[in-house]
Structures are given as structure tokens and as C-alpha cells.
Amino acid sequence: MVSARDAGGPLALARLLPLAGMRLLAPFVVLGVGAAVLGPLSTVPLGRLVAGGGFGALSALLLMLLAQELCTALREPAGAAVARRVDGVLRARVRAAAAAMPPARLEDPRVQADLRLALRGHRGRTAGAAAVAVAAEAGRLASAVAGAAILSVHVWWLGTAALALSVAQNRRITTMLVGPGGVDSVGEAGQARRRADYLADLAGEPGGAAKEIRVFGLEAFLVGRYVAAMRAYLAPRVRRRRSVVRGYGWVLGIQAVSACGTFAVLSVHAAAGRIGAGELAGCVVAALLVFAYGAGGHHMFDLAYGAEPYRAVTRLLKPVPAPPPAGTGGFHLTGVTFTYPHAPAPVLEHLDLQVRPGERLAIVGRNGAGKTTLAKLLTGLYTPAHGSATTSRAAVVFQDFVRYPLPLRDNVRLGDPAFDGTDADVLAALAAVDALDLLHTLPAGLDTPLSRAFTSGRDLSGGQWQKVALARAVYAMNAGRDRALIVDEPTAHLDARAEREVFERLLHHTRGRTLVLISHRFATVRRADRIVVLDGGAIAEQGGHAELMAAGGHYAHWYRLQADLITRSDP
Ligand SMILES: Nc1ncnc2c1ncn2[C@@H]1O[C@H](COP(=O)(O)OP(=O)(O)OP(=O)(O)O)[C@@H](O)[C@H]1O
Asked: Does the keyword Oxidoreductase apply (predicted)?
């Protein structure tokens, strides 16, 4: 694996090529070498022909030109095959790494973005395409160097000067088009383009968005927003394109000076009789090879864009720090302060919280109080900027749990992919969250893909999905890895009966283990051993239900408010 410094650099990308295997790589290399050397070599029979070499020189020249054409033409499909195979191998590795990731990491938006890049590529370019582009660029450079060497045989400094100008020109064009801040730079394509793509995708999405668009009549609004987003995306690009066109003027000027200078020097030497007619013809072809490198080529896009998916792959395949030891099931946060990147203020500040092994702890607070953030600190997904956090391994169900478009069995087994559980383990996890009924509604039982994208698949209701996510966490605990269960709004989608049933079963099932429950439902919360009220980034109150009710603080106020809403009868 590459170091962080050269991740995405040409050497690191070239090291991917052997992944294609010798059967695909050997023809690609042979064709590449052929395309690179036959051009410079053809200057020999060309020189002889011009110098009066006759049929032999002509045949040799024609054969070489034909072979070069063939090599150049066949190198493209051979390169595409190599790129496909390299990408296939990388995708398989990334999928295996993703399958082995703990769900908490898999649900990290940065990891999700890396997965998208690694599996789909960036702007149609992949890591394999970038690796092939490195080889193609190396071939073009080799041709240019050989051309420069031929020029230098006749005028010692001419080849070096022409090559230096050509390399500088190539760098300049690459920087203008795909370098940092260049017209097609990755950063530039970032946010504004994603916003436009998101708006365009919204309309085509079969899920909730399409329904809302129709119901609220959002078509014109969305089109307007899309046009505005595309304008915002295109405006700086158009400005930069203008500056690129001006930049191209300079680059072409330099090329013109370089070409005119080279041909002038050659002419002077030929006129003085130091270069014969045949040698002059060879020098002209050699000079054209040098200039061709300076003009750049489409490979620079493959290289620049394909390096992004490669960086994502290296991040995803980086050895994951060993999971924390199972621990006792307890958690210990001391003086913890946590601020999201670019946020003006910390979400949590100087927070102390101890969760005893086996304790049933509930966390409550207003929207945005930091409950989910606290859960992510407890699971070790986030590390605090200040303070210390001692955690235990925990199974987690987040509010925005993932709905995998996979069979029900896999949706549960992803709780601990390393555990070789049987169907009985999967069924036990489903039973623990009162979800066995679900099986009767699915045509292929555990084998039913949970997605309407498959003809044999079924989508689930919000509550059913929530039970599946809970079953996944229970499966992870049953696998023996985790001593604690952290659930963020575990029953938000469930009706009152289902909520009661599921929570009873969870309490029973997690007996002896730690349960951390984040919820706005006080009927559930009140059953915890201890309730922690988060407010203003710190713990405002804590204690048992009776204790907090007697204290008459936030908790008592919210509890009564919720109870009133339920019991109050309309006039
Ligand atoms: N990834 C993020 N990047 C930046 N800010 C975030 C991020 N996630 C949450 N926040 C902010 O942190 C604060 C706390 O959010 P958090 O989700 O922890 O609250 P919560 O108590 O769980 O809220 P709710 O009850 O609505 O689920 C909010 O102001 C939110 O906007």
C-alpha cells in the first residue's frame, strides 16, 4: 500500500497495473512500447530513403509506420481492458473492506462519499483508467526523449532545449486544465455541481421525493433551482475557460517559437552542410515527436480525475485501527468538548458522563441538544477535541440507519459480518425485536431483497425497517462482540403497541448488558435506571424518573407536557 504522501501520484498509480494480471498487461505493455519506439526508429529508414536508399528503405519505413499505427490503435482497447480489470480487483477489495466495517464507520458520511468515489469513479474516470494513463504518458514522454536524443546527435543542445520547452508546455496545459484551481479541478466541480446533480436526481427518484414533488407541485421550483445551481457551477468555469484560452495563446506562442527555432537551427546546419538531406528528414520527424508531448492529451483528465477514486480506495483500505477492547460495557467521558468542523461553537462542552456496566441509561434533550453527537462519542466514531473518552464496544442503531437493498438475512447479518451466524441466529435477532411476523409478508422469507429495484424484492414500512435495524444490532450483540447497545430514537417509527413490545423485549434481551437509549418518548424513557438531560452542551439534570419529577426541572416539564398532550380531551 502507498504512503499518504504519494497516494494518487504517478508511481502509486503505476503500481496498480500488475493487478490486471500478465495476460492483459503483457499485450498492453508490448503495444505501448511499440507505439513509443517505432516513431523514433522510423527516422532511420526515412533518412535512408531521402538520402536515396531505394526500395529497401521504403519498405522498412512503410512497415514501421504500419506497425506504429497498429500499436497505437490496439493500445486503446488493451488499455481499457487493463483498466477494467484493475478496477474490478479494487472494487472487490473495497467491497470486502466495506463488508467488514462496523456499521458505525460504514454510516459515516465521509466513508459513504469515499465508497461512492471508489465504486463509481469521479466524472467517469476510475483508478484503473488513471493507472493506464500513467503508462500512456510515460510512452509519450519516452518518444519525446528519443526524439530529443536524435536532435542532439546533430546539434548537441537542440534536443535538450526543445524537450525542456515541451515538458514545460505540457505541465502548463495540465495545470491550466486539471491542476488545483484549473478549469476542471475537482474542488471546483465539488459543491455547486453536487447541488445541481442532487436537484436533477430528486425528480427521477422513485422514493418519497417524487411523491412530494407531485403533491406540492414543485416541478417549476426545482427546475428554477436546478438552472440557478448549474449557472452557479458554470459561471466560474466560463470565466476560467476564458483565462485558459488566453493561457493557451501564450502556450501556443511558445510552441511556435520552439518549432520555428528548432527548424531554423536545423535549416542553418543543413545549409552549412553539417546535416545531410536524409538526416534533416529524420530530425524533422524527431522534432515533431518532441512537440507532440508538449501538446498534452486526454490522458491528463484520466490521471487527474482517476486519482481521486484511487485516493478514496487507499483511505478505505487503510488498516482500520483495532476496535476498542470489548471492555466492561461501561463508558467514561471526562471534561469532553466536541465541536463539528467549521461550526462556530461546540455542541458539547466540559461534559462528564459515566455509564456503569449493565446500566440502563436514557438521554433526553431538545432537538439539536447534542444527543446523537454524544452517542457518536460513546461509540468512538468521533473523538473529543478536549477531555478523554473511555469506551466499550457497542452495537449501535442510529436515527438515520442504513436500509441496505440486500436480502433480509444480509440486512441482519451485517451487524457483525465477521461472525459466521446461522439462520437460527438471524431469526433469534428478529424475534428479539418482535419482527418474526415480517417473514410471513416476504415472498422468499430471509432471501427476499429489501428493495423494489428487484422484481422479487419488497420495500418495508418505516417501522419494519426500524425493527430490521434493531435486529442488526441485537445480532451483533448475540455474536458476542459487544457488551453494550446504543440506540438513537429506536422506536420513532413504531406504533404505540409495537413500541411497548419492542422495548420490553430489548430490555429483556440486553439484561446484564449496558443499554443507552436516546428518545423523545417519555413513556419509554421513564423505565431507564437513570435519565440524563442534555441542555446547553452539558448535563443539566440526571437521576431516576421519580427523582427528576420531584425536582420539577426540564424533565418534569417535558414529561407533563407529553402526558397532557395525550390525556387532554378536545372541547
Ligand atoms: N455532521 C455535522 N456537522 C456539523 N454540525 C452537525 C453535524 N451533526 C449535527 N450537527 C449539529 O450539532 C448539533 C447537535 O446535533 P445532534 O444531532 O447531536 O442533536 P440531537 O440532540 O441528536 O438532535 P435531535 O433530537 O433533533 O435528533 C446541532 O446543532 C446540529 O446542527
From this structure: no
Q: Whose CA is nearest to atom 2 of ligand 1?
A: 340
Rounded Cα distance between 304 and 175, Å, is: 10
Q: Is the CB of 372 under 6 A from ligand 1?
A: yes
386 C-alpha vs ligand 1 centroid, how far in Å? Answer: 19
How many Å apart are CA 374 and CA 336, to the nearest integer? 10
Residue owning the nearest CA to atom 4 of ligand 1 = 340
Q: What is the pTM of this model?
A: 0.63
Q: Cβ(1)–Cβ(316) under 8 Å?
A: no
- Give the count of beta carbons closer than 10 Å to the beta carbon of residue 457: 17
Q: Are 374 and 348 in contact (CB under 8 A)?
A: yes
pLDDT value of residue 218: 81
Q: What is the pLDDT of residue 222?
A: 85
Ligand 1 atom 24, closest CA: 367
Substitution site in 371, 396, 487, 519 for ligand 1 pocket (most atoms within 8 Å of beta carbon): 371
Q: Is the CB of 343 under 6 A from ligand 1?
A: yes
The full set of domains in the chain, from first to last, is 10-317 (1.20.1560.10), 373-567 (3.40.50.300)
Place of cell 415472498: 443
In the reported structure, the alpha carbon of residue 187 is separated from the centroid of ligand 1 by a whole-number distance in angstroms of 26
Residue ranges of the chain with pLDDT lower than 50?
1-5, 183, 185-188, 571
